[in-house]
Amino acid sequence: MKVIFEHQSHPSGLGFLTKEYIQTYFTSPFHFHDLYELIWIKKSYGKLYAGKKIVNFNGGEVYLFGPGFGHCFYNEKSFIESGETAHAIAIFFKEDFLGTGFFDNTEYVKVRELLNKAIHGVQVRHVDDQVYTLFSKMLQEKGMNELILFLQLLNHLSQLPAPQLEVMNETQSAMKLTNKDSARLEPVLKYVIENFKGDLDSKKAAELIYLNEAAFCRYFKRRMEQTFSQFVNHVRITHATSLLLTEEWDILRICYECGFKNLSYFNRQFREITGQSPKEYRRAFQGSNESLIMDNQAD
Questions:
Q1: What span, in angstroms and rounded, lies between the C-alpha atoms of 166 and 145?
Q2: For a tag site, which of 80, 83, 181, 212 has the least CB within 10 Å?
Q3: Could you tell me which residues come within 8 angstroms of residue 188 by beta carbon, excluding any fewer than 6 positions away?
Q4: Coil, strand or helix: which one is 30?
Q5: In the chain, count of helices (H) and strands (E)?
Q6: What pTM does this model have?
Q7: Does residue 106 share a domain with residue 43?
Q8: Which intervals hold domain HTH araC/xylS-type (predicted)?
Q9: Per-residue pLDDT averaged across 280-288, rounded?
C-alpha cells in the first residue's frame, strides 16, 4: 500500500511545483499532504471523494485543496475501458512560498480568503479560458516566468465572484483521519467506487482490512462519520445524478444501473440525500452540467 500522506517538493527548493499527469487512469490513492493543491482535470471523468463529499467530476474542472484535505479522483470503469487517457495539471504550493505572512497584507486579502476556503476544498465553477491558458503556460516556463504566471493565476481565481468558488465541506477543516486510518481504509473506498453497480458486501469490505464484519462496521462509522451502507448509497446516488442529466433513461433503469434492487428504496435514498425525487432533480437541472455536492446524512 502506498503511503497516503504525500509530500511534494520542488527539486530547486522553490515553494511551489507544477506537475503534469498523463495516465491510463488516475492512480493516486485517497490521500492528503501538507501543501495546497490547485488542479485542472484536463481530460477524465469519474467520482471525486473530497473530504466528506462525493461528487461527479469531468474534464475541464478545476479544484483547490488545502493542507490536510483528504481527496482522491477515481476513474469509472467506463473511462478506463474506453482507452482514453486521463490528463491533469496540478500545482502544489506552500502557504508561505513568498515568505511568512505575505498574504496577510491587506492588499492581498482576496488571495487570503481563497486560501482559507481551500481548507474546506473548493471547486471553481464556470472556468474561463484565462485559467486554462495560465495553467498551460506554467508547464512551458521556469523560474521567474513560472512564478509570475502562478501569481496571475492565483490573483485571477481570487477575483472570481463568490458563487464561482464553491466550498465543498462547510463544516470540515482539516482531514480527521490519521495516516494509518487513511491507508487502512483506501482499499475499502476503492472497492466501493469500482463496484457500486453490483452487489457490495460489508463482510467482503471487512476482509479487505482484516477485520470481522461487526468490528469493521464500528471502525468505519467511527472514522468516516457515516455507516458503510450510507457511504455506498452516496456513491450510487451520485452516479444517479449524473445519469439523470446525461441519459434519457427512465427512472427504473437508472435505479438498476446504480446498483439498487428496489425502486422505492432508490427513490427514498435519493430524496434523503438530495432533498428531491429523481424526477424533480431531473426537471430542476435539465440542461445543466452542474455536479451535485451531497452532505452526509444520519441514519
A1: 29
A2: 83
A3: 205, 208, 209, 220, 228
A4: coil
A5: 11, 9
A6: 0.71
A7: yes
A8: 186-284
A9: 74
